[in-house]
């Protein structure tokens, strides 16, 4: 029978929905996230025991004194095991998901109860929703909503909705038909019959459905911890992935307490809202023994509400005026409270490097948030922009499949450790097994299994796809999927019993220090060459966070440093990773400043600090960029530079008279030759800092059959008889009008419009947007060639002359007046990439923010200030 590509069809449908209904998913995401943030803020604000008192008071109102005392003790236990914040996150998730579910489920149940056709259609849909494994709902949730709270809430709503719909329908259908008929006989409108007869009588069943919705929601939000949903789910997932019994038990206890509280409270709520239940409650109170009445007494609703309000006001006041937590110690407020989301895989080096950067960023004034993910979810989250960066990508081999899939949406910030290796290891007491080839004949020795790690790990994919088939191990061995911690736990048990075991491992790893193991050789090279551990970030992270990106690009750890860091974290224990990092930093003084140096913190003053050179510049991109760059550098060296914009003619005149000390945009020997020849006796050429420039006319690439200046002849009608120029005083404009047009016979056919560089670029943008022909005066380098697809018209007659260099020109007194600055400029040089990125940084910053753009560029180029303006110590 031919295979039905059902999965492919579903995948195509999901991709179509994501591409065409992104606006809807963004709206849903904003609404759900807003609801969660609001509820979570309310629950997380008060002091834990005070909020526990409020929840206990609600329990007293709904069930009595003893349940209230037990509720308070349960929440106090959660606080004592330091899981209060996670528990409130989970409670917020449950409440938001529960409310959304009930809002949809109850109306659907009512509709189904009143229309059998609707019931017949909805029933199989509900069966599908209820029987589909809960984990499956997380996959489309990630695609549509990214990582975090929203996909967890959406998956929870879908998973928990069926009992709400079913119980609502069942409750209404079970209402005595004779009562409904009696209401109809008295002429009651069907809507009033529903509201006054059916719903009140069906309320106990509906409330049972609500109870089930809440319970299923709680179970699902725990599972949602796998995709970054906050709360106890994340704690449980981390405990499972690391096989941490203590953490798992504590997280499980907190979940149980929440589940019991929500179950008892939603069940008891029925007694307050249902007429039938209230009557039964009154009978129960009347039968209570006189000596136990205090245990059965419940405060009136008004009394309970007053108590809740009073406690809430006190809680709000404590939250407002408390705030005496020390928080992280900020040694240099570089981040100024900026948030950074860091994801990590729960591997030793990933945990160590992640919490190291969490501590460093907090010390620098950032607000980093760390979250553990599975490998696939981590890469998906970074590609979607939900995670800023992660520090544990094993490339080019282990994570090759993920990098290949997502590299267009990621940035590689460089490797910080290497080389590494992947291998299968066995205890050294297992004799006769030295290579992977030796395993093939020893399957019975190892009970036909190799103990692996997380199924999504790159090493596991390599094992399945290449290593095991390459050595014929796939016939007699099975690869056990689990987690790193589970593998290490099994290794520890087998090692203590001297039992043979084969495990997937990698180097470096502390297991090689703890146990005597044999790394099985890989003569066929199936594992590939050794990896290096890279830091990857979402696309655009470096541009938005140049300082952090600069630190990470320079980040390096040696094997001894990494293993000692891992050891310090292991000694601190689970949940105290940052304390371990702080202990390690104390043992390695100066490491924090080495890894995250404060920008500008060690600026040295120049010998001529206090000098005030006058710098002139043209309104051209390269001149604006370099002028503001030198302004920043000089100010760091203690100078007091002044800058001022000039026209070309005014600039040369001002320099020759000493009104301008220096400028950086002399196009020589061609473009500004006439000015240089006129004023050179009063000027000095400090030197060239950029080579290989060119002057040209450019047209959009969609203009066909125009490849050279000669092709312009006879096509004046195409370009409205004009060439869009720049400032009339520039050398290029004079060359164009005086020589180039005449050389190609274009002077009678075309008119060159005088204007400015910004006006020319604005006209180019307008014409390009409309696909209209336009010819503009341009030069290389220029960012326009990156933004638009343009054709540089060839100049076969070399009318524009030879290529220019960009020179620093100054008044003849400049070298003696500013000897230190003159020395820096003589050795200064910029590459095409450096100049282009500097211009782009200034453009991104926007007009009036040139200094901010330069600062970002300097932050992204560590050491550039010392390179441009070195100061002898």
From TrEMBL:
InterPro entries: ABC_Gly_betaine_transp_sub-bd, MetI-like, MetI-like_sf. It is a multi-pass membrane protein. Residues 87-266 form the ABC transmembrane type-1 domain. The chain crosses the membrane at residues 49-78, 90-114, 134-159, 201-227, 239-262, 303-323. Its main location: membrane. Pfam families: BPD_transp_1 (PF00528), OpuAC (PF04069). Keywords: Cell membrane, Membrane, Transmembrane, Transmembrane helix, Transport. Coiled coil: none annotated. The keyword Transmembrane helix applies. The keyword Transport applies. PROSITE patterns: ABC_TM1. It is found in: Cell membrane; Membrane. SUPFAM superfamilies: MetI-like, Periplasmic binding protein-like II. Belongs to the binding-protein-dependent transport system permease family. This is ABC transporter permease/substrate binding protein. It comes from Streptomyces endocoffeicus.
């Amino acid at each position: 029978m031919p295979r039905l590509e059902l999965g492919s069809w579903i995948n195509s449908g999901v991709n179509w929905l994501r591409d065409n209904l992104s606006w809807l998913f963004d709206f849903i995401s904003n609404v759900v996230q807003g609801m969660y943030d609001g509820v979570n803020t309310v629950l997380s604000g008060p002091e834990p025991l005070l909020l526990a008192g409020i929840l206990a008071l609600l329990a007293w109102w709904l069930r009595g004194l003893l349940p209230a005392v037990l509720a308070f003790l349960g929440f106090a236990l959660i606080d004592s095991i330091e899981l209060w914040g996670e528990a409130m996150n989970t409670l917020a998730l449950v409440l938001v998901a529960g409310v959304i579910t009930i809002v949809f489920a109850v109306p659907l149940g009512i509709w189904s109860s009143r229309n059998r056709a609707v019931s017949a259609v909805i029933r199989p849909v509900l069966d599908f929703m209820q029987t589909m494994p809960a984990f499956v709902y997380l996959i489309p949730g990630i695609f549509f909503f990214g990582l975090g709270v929203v996909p967890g809430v959406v998956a929870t709503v879908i998973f928990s909705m069926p009992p709400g719909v079913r119980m609502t329908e069942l409750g209404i259908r079970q209402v005595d038909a004779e009562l409904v008929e009696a209401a109809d006989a008295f002429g009651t409108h069907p809507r009033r019959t529903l509201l006054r007869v059916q719903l009140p009588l069906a309320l106990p069943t509906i409330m049972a459905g609500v109870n089930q919705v809440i319970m299923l929601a709680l179970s699902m939000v725990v599972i949602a911890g796998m995709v970054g949903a906050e709360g106890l789910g994340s704690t449980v997932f981390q405990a499972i992935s690391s096989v941490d019994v203590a953490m798992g038990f504590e997280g499980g206890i907190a979940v149980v307490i929440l589940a019991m509280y929500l179950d008892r409270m939603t069940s008891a709520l029925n007694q307050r809202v249902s007429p039938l239940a209230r009557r039964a409650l009154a009978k129960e109170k009347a039968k209570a023994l006189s000596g136990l009445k205090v245990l059965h007494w419940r405060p009136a609703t008004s009394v309970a509400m007053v108590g809740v309000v009073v406690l809430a006001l006190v809680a709000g006041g404590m939250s407002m005026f408390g705030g005496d937590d020390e928080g992280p110690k900020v040694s240099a407020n570089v981040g100024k409270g900026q948030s950074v989301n860091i994801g990590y895989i729960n591997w030793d080096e990933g945990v160590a490097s992640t919490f190291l950067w969490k501590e460093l960023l907090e010390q620098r004034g950032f607000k980093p948030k760390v979250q553990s993910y599975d490998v696939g979810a981590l890469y998906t989250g970074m590609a979607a922009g939900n995670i800023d960066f992660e520090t544990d990508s094993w490339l080019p081999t282990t994570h090759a499949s993920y990098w290949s899939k997502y590299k267009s949406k990621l940035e590689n910030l460089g490797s910080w450790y290497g080389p590494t290796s992947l291998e299968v290891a066995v205890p050294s007491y297992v004799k006769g097994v030295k290579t992977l080839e030796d395993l093939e004949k020893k399957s019975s020795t190892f009970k036909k299994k190799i103990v692996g790690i997380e199924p999504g790990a790159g090493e596991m994919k390599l094992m399945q796809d290449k290593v095991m088939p390459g050595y014929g191990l796939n016939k007699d061995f099975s690869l056990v999927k689990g987690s790193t911690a589970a593998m290490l736990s099994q290794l520890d048990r087998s090692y203590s019993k001297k039992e043979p075991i084969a495990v997937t491992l990698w180097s470096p790893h502390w297991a090689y220090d703890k146990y005597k193991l044999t790394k099985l050789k890989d003569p066929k090279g199936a594992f590939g060459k050794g990896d290096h551990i890279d830091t990857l970030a979402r696309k655009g992270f470096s541009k938005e966070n140049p300082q952090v990106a600069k630190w990470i690009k320079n980040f390096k750890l040696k094997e001894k440093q990494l293993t000692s860091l891992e050891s310090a974290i292991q000694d601190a224990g689970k949940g105290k990773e940052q304390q371990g990092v702080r202990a390690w930093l104390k043992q390695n003084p100066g490491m924090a400043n080495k890894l995250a140096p404060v920008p500008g913190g060690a600026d040295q003053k120049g010998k001529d600090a206090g000098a005030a050179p006058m710098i002139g510049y043209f309104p051209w991109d390269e001149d604006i960029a370099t002028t503001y760059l030198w302004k920043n550098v000089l100010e760091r060296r203690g100078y007091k530079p002044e800058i001022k914009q000039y026209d070309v003619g005014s600039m040369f005149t001002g320099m020759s008279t000493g009104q301008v000390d220096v400028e950086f945009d002399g196009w020589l020997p061609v473009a500004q030759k006439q000015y240089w020849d006129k004023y050179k006796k009063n000027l000095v050429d400090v030197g060239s800092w950029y080579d290989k420039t060119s002057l040209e006319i450019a047209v959009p690439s969609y203009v066909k059959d125009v490849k050279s200046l000669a092709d312009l002849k006879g096509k004046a009608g195409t370009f409205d008889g004009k060439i869009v120029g720049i400032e009339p005083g520039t050398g290029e404009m004079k060359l164009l009008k005086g020589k180039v047009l005449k050389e190609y016979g274009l002077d009678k056919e075309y008119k060159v419009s005088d204007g400015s560089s910004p006006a020319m670029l604005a006209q180019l943008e307008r014409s390009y947007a409309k696909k209209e022909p336009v010819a503009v005066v341009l030069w290389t380098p220029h960012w326009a060639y990156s933004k638009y697809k343009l054709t540089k018209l060839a100049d076969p007659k070399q009318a524009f002359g030879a290529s220019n260099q960009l020179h620093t020109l100054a008044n003849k007194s400049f070298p003696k007046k500013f000897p230190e600055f003159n020395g820096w400029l003589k050795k200064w040089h910029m590459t095409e990439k450096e100049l282009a990125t500097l211009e782009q940084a200034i453009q991104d910053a926007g007009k009036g923010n040139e200094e901010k753009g330069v600062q970002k560029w300097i932050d992204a180029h560590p050491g550039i200030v010392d390179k441009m303006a070195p100061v002898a110590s």
